[in-house]
Amino acid sequence: MGKLFFYSDQVVESPGNRRLDEKLLAGMNTDNVKVGYIPSTEDKEKTFFRSKADYYQKYGIQDILFFDLYSEFNPLIIEDLLNCDIIHLSAGNPIEFRKAIKHRNMEKVLIDYFNNGGTIVGVSGGAVQLGRTTTLFQMFTGDIDENSEALQLVDFEFLPHYNRWNEDYKRDVLDYVKTTGTTVYAGNDGDGIIVDNDKIEMIGDIVVISEQV
Question: Residue 178: how many CB atoms within 10 A of its CB?
Answer without folding.
Answer: 14
